[in-house]
């Protein structure tokens, strides 16, 4: 059995106190993050600066002693490595050059060339694997193909992923060729992170919830299965966390269908339901509402206890249902941790 608490949970061990980390734990709610980010300049410069990216990854570990650190990077670095233009508009979010035609697809670089752009990320991983405390697990990550494709097609974040759904119905071969290219790049990217020292990898499918029926099977389940099987073939023993956000009933059977060691769940599903329908197949991660990190108080304590209690019968990694927001109070994070660790 592994020693680190996160790896124990991923190996299927039920623990009296669940290990804890938080999506977006290195982020704007922390003053020390804002300071380093200002030093780096813009967000992308921070992602591609190994020393500073490692520094912001370490900040929440120093402050809170989380059981896992997640590499500081972004899911949109893969499109950029494939040749898309990428920039961030302050206060609005990412912008990318769009791909909606074969000509656009033809301009993408071959997967073999992605490392030229992504090498600094691997260097961040190498620094972290030297500098993290020995009990802390290092998680690498990538966006899942559907979620990454929604940004590459629309050129920005969208509420309903309309442009990606439109391309899927209007030019399915092109849509599928794009997903295949992202799938292949993701395997190479995650493998390189593992070779650099990532001990676990996570696939973020933030927009999986807008895929229904057959589309969910073809574009959320199948790419995850392909990526996970190739990662496991190349790197036996490396656990994978899958996060098909807002999958609803699609969470049921997701471990078995994809080979994921852990399924992360968002806060739209009840923890008791998760225990009954998802945790029966293996480790689960989640799922406190991020808004508690803003509002705090007794409601935060009660809800944290309720989730820990509902999921105590099986392997569980405590996390939020989605990323912590910039308006969160750092003291509420400590309250959540104290509630979990001290009862
Ligand atoms: O100004 C800033 O500091 C930028 C805010 C920010 C941060 C801190 C962005 C822009 N990305 C990140 C880091 C990040 N992104 C991490 C680092 C590790 C950690 O969790 O601490 C990770 C894992 C991501 C993953 C990511 N990026 C996702 C998947 C998870 C999710 O939140 O659903 C997505 C969809 C993105 C795209 C993205 N990057 C940034 C923003 C604001 C967005 C969302 C854009 C949108 O849809 O409108």
From TrEMBL:
Pfam families with a match to the protein in the record: URO-D (PF01208)
Site (Transition state stabilizer): 74
Alphabetical keyword list: Cytoplasm, Decarboxylase, Lyase, Porphyrin biosynthesis
Sequence positions that bind substrate: 24-28, 74, 151, 206, 322
CDD domains registered for this protein in UniProt: URO-D
Catalytic activity: uroporphyrinogen III + 4 H(+) = coproporphyrinogen III + 4 CO2
SUPFAM superfamilies for this protein: UROD/MetE-like (SSF51726)
Localization of this protein: Cytoplasm
Pathway annotation from the record: Porphyrin-containing compound metabolism; protoporphyrin-IX biosynthesis; coproporphyrinogen-III from 5-aminolevulinate: step 4/4
Function: Catalyzes the decarboxylation of four acetate groups of uroporphyrinogen-III to yield coproporphyrinogen-III.
Family: Belongs to the uroporphyrinogen decarboxylase family.
Subunit structure: Homodimer.
Protein name: Uroporphyrinogen decarboxylase
């Amino acid at each position: 059995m592994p020693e680190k608490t996160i790896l124990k949970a991923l190996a299927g061990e039920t623990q009296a106190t669940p290990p804890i980390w938080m999506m977006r734990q290195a982020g704007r709610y922390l003053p020390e993050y804002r300071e380093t980010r200002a030093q780096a300049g813009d967000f992308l410069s921070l992602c591609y600066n190994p020393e500073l990216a490692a520094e912001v990854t370490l900040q929440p570990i120093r402050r809170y002693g989380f059981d896992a650190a997640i590499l500081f990077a972004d899911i949109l670095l893969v499109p950029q490595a494939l040749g898309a233009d990428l920039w961030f508009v302050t206060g609005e979010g990412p912008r990318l050059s769009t791909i909606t035609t074969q000509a656009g697809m033809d301009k993408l670089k071959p997967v073999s060339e992605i490392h030229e752009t992504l090498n600094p990320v691997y260097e961040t991983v190498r620094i972290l694997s030297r500098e993290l405390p020995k009990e802390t697990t290092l998680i690498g990550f990538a966006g899942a193909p559907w979620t990454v494709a929604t940004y590459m097609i629309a050129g920005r974040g969208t509420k309903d992923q309309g442009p990606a759904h439109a391309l899927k119905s209007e030019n399915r071969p092109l849509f599928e060729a794009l997903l295949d290219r992202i799938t292949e790049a993701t395997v190479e990217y995650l493998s390189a992170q593992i070779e650099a020292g990532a001990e676990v990898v996570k696939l973020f499918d933030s927009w999986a919830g807008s895929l229904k029926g057959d589309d969910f099977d073809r574009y959320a389940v199948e790419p995850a299965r392909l990526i996970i099987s190739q990662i496991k073939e190349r790197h036996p023993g490396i656990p994978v966390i899958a996060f098909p956000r807002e999958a609803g009933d699609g969470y049921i059977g997701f471990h078995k269908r994809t080979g994921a060691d852990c399924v992360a769940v968002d806060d739209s599903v009840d923890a008791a339901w998760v225990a009954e329908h998802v945790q029966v197949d293996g480790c689960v991660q989640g799922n406190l509402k991020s808004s508690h990190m803003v509002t705090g108080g007794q409601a935060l304590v009660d809800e944290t206890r309720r989730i820990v209690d509902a999921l105590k019968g099986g392997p569980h990694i405590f996390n939020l249902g989605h990323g912590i927001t910039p308006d969160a109070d750092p003291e509420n994070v400590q309250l959540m941790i104290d509630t979990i660790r001290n009862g």
